[in-house]
Structures are given as structure tokens and as C-alpha cells.
Amino acid sequence: GRPASGASKSTTFTYDNIRDQGADGMGSQPSGWWDIFLSKKQRKRQPVITPFMVEGKLNPENLMGKIPDASYHLREGQIYRSTGQDDTFSLRRMIVCHDCVYVCRLQFDRILDKIPTGEIETVRSLPPPSDSPDKPQKVLRSTGGEKGGRTIKVRHDMAEEDVNLGGQRGSLSSMQAGVGVEVMRRTEVMIETKPASDVLSHGFEIRTSASGINAGLTYQFYATSAAERNGWLEALDDCKHYAESQLPTANQLKLQKWQWIASTVYQSDPVQFLIAFLILANFIFNARQAEVRPAQGTTEGDLYEITDDVFTSLFALELGWNMFAHWMWEFLRDGWNIFDFIVVLVSIVSRVFSDVPGLNTLRLLRAFRVMRLFGRLASLRRIINALMMSVKPVLNAFLIMLLVVSIYAILAVEFFADWTGPPPENFPVGPHYFGSFTKALFTNFQIITGDSWASGVIRYFFMPDGELSLGPVFFFASFIIIVGWTLLQVVVAVLLDNFTAASNHEKAQQHADSADLHGKEYQHLSLDPVLAQLSHFDTDFDLRSRIRTLFEVIDADDSGGLDYEELNHGLTKLQFQPPIKLTKQEFFQFTQGEGGVLDLEAFEVNMRRELKMYAQRQMANAMELDSDSDIAPILIVMKLLLNEVTRRGDPDSPPDDPPG
User: Fold this and answer.
1) Rounded to an integer, what distance in angstroms lies between the CA atom of residue 325 and that of residue 339?
2) Which is it for strands 120-125 and 111-116: parallel, antiparallel or unpaired?
3) What one-character DSSP code corresponds to residue 576?
4) How far apart are CA 153 and CA 409, in angstroms?
5) Rounded to whole angstroms, how far apart are CA atoms 87 and 104?
6) Predicted pLDDT at 603
7) CB neighbourhood size of 85 (10 A)
8) Residue pLDDT, tens place only, 197-249
9) pLDDT per position as a tens digit, 339-393
């Protein structure tokens, strides 16, 4: 299909659409008065896509997703679809679900195209084909076929075969056996000629929204009978009505608009600094109150109580503001929001029910209010986040150390539970330090910390004449070596390693913020997510196979060519978040200003060139991040070499300067 003319307004609602449509969501002129709250720092920076951010596996299922389970299918069957070529159609498998319509290959579970039901604007029947020249059909042209009427070509996907680069048939087993044949999977197609009236008499059309992933494309399908076509139309109408029922109402749109305004103001720097100031002021107030300890009923005590009530009220209002702006899941997914909610709720409960015995002790949690400051200031939040990222691997290392310490505690109970120190003291060192598992476990932790473990514990295990006792010496020496010198250092090393990794991530973020401050942005293009996946190739043949797989997925109509509309539409369908939107300027850069239609060979050449340019951009970004490290000179040399390889491979590059 191609973009439909006269497409109606989109029914996809986003904050941008709500802002552009006005408060009532019905298309009024935007007021724009809340735009003053938007600043450059608040706009999300487009992330730099690296190969480590995407999966290396590139196949149709990874690019287009899986077909839903059969229990979610409302209707499924075979359908004819126009390929966009003259009188050529493909026999496809069509699956209608509540949320999406899938077009798949007939013989294989591969998604070729998908139409979200929320983007369907109209579904209508197509008139029967006409051979008269005054009523031309958009996708029909006479082929001068059989006598007495027009004929069309129907493509059937029969099977898949394995071919090598030379075009001869091969076998995947030969490659797996180590024969060395480079094999690529290819779909075998059979073309059948049929009268046009047998295929095109029962067609229907799906027109999509211009702002959706299908960019206003119009799909034309053809059933084998009128009853079958009516069944498809009924299923599609049900899905369209279901999608419309899920759209927000006018009141919900107004609520979403005000939530967006509240969130924008709440996230602004002045508001966040004000909240941080209140938290810090409350902490100083609590410290001063703990210092003077004013008596209840006095003027000074009442003043502190009133001030505490004011702080509690302000924090309650701030929490309500945050909950309204980010309710529901966005609020609950943030751990700092949960912590704020608990601290404020405990403060309110302890104040309201201060006369209830036991609840007054909850007021001690007021001291934890200052920890809310960690979620407000970026520098403190980064340190806490780095520590939290290190918790899981540190816990694994600590669990190993705890198991070893527990094993030694059990052995200590067996060996030393009845041990008595040398005369004349005869101190019951065994029952005192190793009389039970918990006593032995605590003693082992004392030994790990080095707290008088030799003079206070081990010396009692010497012989009466002062000679060493080999058993206790070997036991405690091995414990110190294994736990104190080895496992404890492993825990610290794991903590430092993960904290360093998190710090490097924060360093990259600071570099990016500094680049924005000085007007420099890291280079990134729309194709970077795809190029990041392609960069995981192992061999040149693997890269070629990945590019051809990508071409086959994007070329949903099997026409063998991609123009701008089809390429942009195909990239948008891929499972990347956010979706890829290719501009016309980027398309002309991709084709080196030629435009037009790209066949497989031209697509592969251009993708290889884009992959080299992507590698250069990644090298430049890495140099910005590691400009102060020892690896920077190596990156510069690699960048120059890659630039020279790219320049020599470009026929339009200027020649080298003559020597001398």
C-alpha cells in the first residue's frame, strides 16, 4: 500500500497531541501558556545508541515480534494482498486480534506487517474490478493475458531452501558439519496465473492513521468469497470499536493535560531546589530540637510543635502534588516516591494520634526525612544509585562468606565448647565464646574485625606451660586466612568493582551534560539502533546475511525494492523503542542524494557505508568520554585508520595529495 489521500485526523492521543489540540481535546487552538515551564534541561536527550544497548541477534522474530497465541485470535485465514506491482498479488495469512492485525507468510510463522487496531480509521469494501478504461483501478492494470478477461499473478511461498553465495543450493547441515559452505536461507516462491475475477471480486480496504506507525498507509486485501469478506469486515469493525472504547474520554484528556502541567512544574529546577531546602531546614530544626530538648507545655516547646506541624503539612502537600502529577504506576515504580510516602504518612499518623500509647515513638522517624534529600539532589542520588546497583553482587559474595563463617562456627562448637583456659585463671573460654552456635558465630565475627581476637580469645587456648596448641592454632589461622584475608577482600572488591562501573556511567552522564552546556551534542541518527544490531556480526557473510534479513523484513510486499515511504514504514514497524522515524533528508543521505528505489544490492552497499560511519561516530563519542585516559591515543589512531578506509572506499572522495 501507499499513503492514503485525505486521511482523517489521528485518534492516537499523546501529551503532544493534547497540547496541540487544546484543553478539550477537540482541535481548538493551543494556548501555549504552559510552555514557559519547559526548559532545555528538562527535554530528554536522545540517547547515544551503542552495540551494548541492543541484542546482537537479528532475525525476523526479533525485529517484528512473535505471533500471539491462538487463544487471542479473533479471526484467521488466507487472504490475497497486493504487492504494489502490476497485477501481482501474494497469498498471505491474516490474523485479527483485539489490539493488532498481523499479516504473515502462509507457510511460516513470520510477521510481514502489522496494523494496530487503534490506528484503523476506516474499513470498507472495494468495488469489483472493471476492465473498462473509464473506470481504472488503483492497483490493477491489464496484462493482456487470457482471452476474454484480465489475468493476474499470484505468488505462493512454497518452502525455504538453503543457498550459498554462488546461487547454488546447499544445506545447513553441510555448514554445521564444517564443510565451509556459506549458506543463506531463501524462500522458494511459485507464481500462478489466475483470472482477475477469481481473486479481485471480494476486496476490502483498511485505511490507517497518518500519525501512527503505518503513516496513513492504505491496505487492500481480497477474499475468496463475499461471505469471507463480510467475516473479515465484521471482525475488523469489532476490533476498531474495541480500540475506540479504550481511548480516553474528554474528562480524562483534561485530567491528563493537568497532570502533564503539574509534572512539568514539579520537575522544574526551582521547585526541586525549594523542596530540597525545606528538607534540609527541617533536618536542622530536628537537630536543634534534639539539642535543647524543650519541655512540653512551655512556650519554646509549643513553638517547636507548631513548626513541626508546618513542615509536616508542607511535606504532605508536596507528596500530594507528586502523586497527582505521576499517578499511578509512574509514581509507584520509583522507590524514592515510596520512601517519601512512608515517611510523610508516619509523620502524620504520629502527630494525629500522639496520645495513643506506642504511636508517639513513630515521631522518631522524623529524623529520616533528611534522606529524602538524596532523591532531590543529583549528586547525592548518583552515589546512592551506584551503591544500590552494587547491592545484589555484594550480597552474593557476602552469602558465600556467611556460609564459610557458619561452617567454622559449627566446627568451633564441636571442638571448643568445653574448653577451659590455663591455670590459675581457668577461664571457661569454651562455654563463654563457643558454647552455642550463635555465640560461636558472634565470636567469629569478632575475630574477623580484629577486635582483641588474639589477647581476648586465642590466648586462652595455649597450653598451661605457654606452649602453642596446634589444633586451635591451625583452626584460627586457617579461619583468618580464608575469611579475613580472602573472602572479606572479595566482598570489598566486588563492591568497588560495581561502584566503579556505576561511577563510570555517571561520568558519561556528566560528559553528556557538559556537552549540552557547551552546545555540543553527541552524534546520533535514526538508523543507529539498526546499525547497533548489525555491528554484532561475526564474519562478512554474517553481516551480509543480517542486511538481507533486514531487507526482507522491511520489504513486506516482496517487490524487491524500497522507496522512501516503504523504507520508513518498514523501519517504524520494527520493535525499537522509541520507534525509528526516518526523515527524507536522512533517506537522501542514505542513498547519497540519488533517492528513488533501492534494490537488495543497493540497500546492502548503503547499509555497509552507514555501518562504517556509525563506527566513526561511536569512536568519536568514546574519545569524548575517555579523553583523559591512556586509551585516548589508541582511539585516535583507530579513528584515523577507519576514516582512511572509509575514504578510500568512497568513489566520490578527493584523491590523495601528490608527494612533495
Assistant:
1) 17
2) unpaired
3) -
4) 82
5) 20
6) 93
7) 17
8) 777 888 999 999 888 888 788 888 999 899 999 999 999 999 988 888 888 88
9) 888 888 888 887 787 777 666 666 666 677 777 777 666 667 777 777 877 787 8
Pairing of strands 203-208, 120-125: antiparallel
Residues 6+ away with beta carbon under 8 Å from 599: 560, 561
Strand 88-96 relative to strand 151-164: parallel, antiparallel, unpaired?
parallel
Q: Output the nine-digit C-alpha cell for 466.
A: 605457654
Cell numbers for 232: 473479515
| Residues in a beta bridge with 123 | 206
Taking the whole predicted model, whether its pTM rises above 0.85 is answered as no
Backbone angles phi, psi at 26, to 5 degrees: -110, 15
Strand partners, 183: 164
CB count within 10 Å of CB 69 equals 8
Which of 615, 608, 612 lies closest to 551, judged by CA? 608
Q: Which three cell numbers stand for residue 64?
A: 517484528
C-alpha cell at 121: 480509521
- The H or E element that residue 120 is part of is strand 120-125
The answer to whether residues 511 and 522 touch, using CB atoms and an 8 Å cutoff, is no
Rg (CA), the chain: 35
Q: Is the peptide bond before 424 cis (omega within 30 degrees of 0)?
A: yes
The cell for 322 is 507528586
> If you ran DSSP here, which 8-state letter would residue 268 be given?
S
pLDDT in tens, 55-104: 556 777 778 888 888 888 999 999 998 776 667 788 899 999 989 999 98
Report the distance separating Cα 170 and Cα 164, nearest Å: 6
Do 561 and 552 contact (CB within 8 A), yes or no? Answer: no
Which region, left, alpha or beta, applies to residue 549 given φ > 0 means left and ψ of -120 to 50 means alpha?
A: alpha
Helix, strand, coil in percent for the chain, rounding step 5: 55, 10, 35
Strand ranges for 260-322 from DSSP E = none
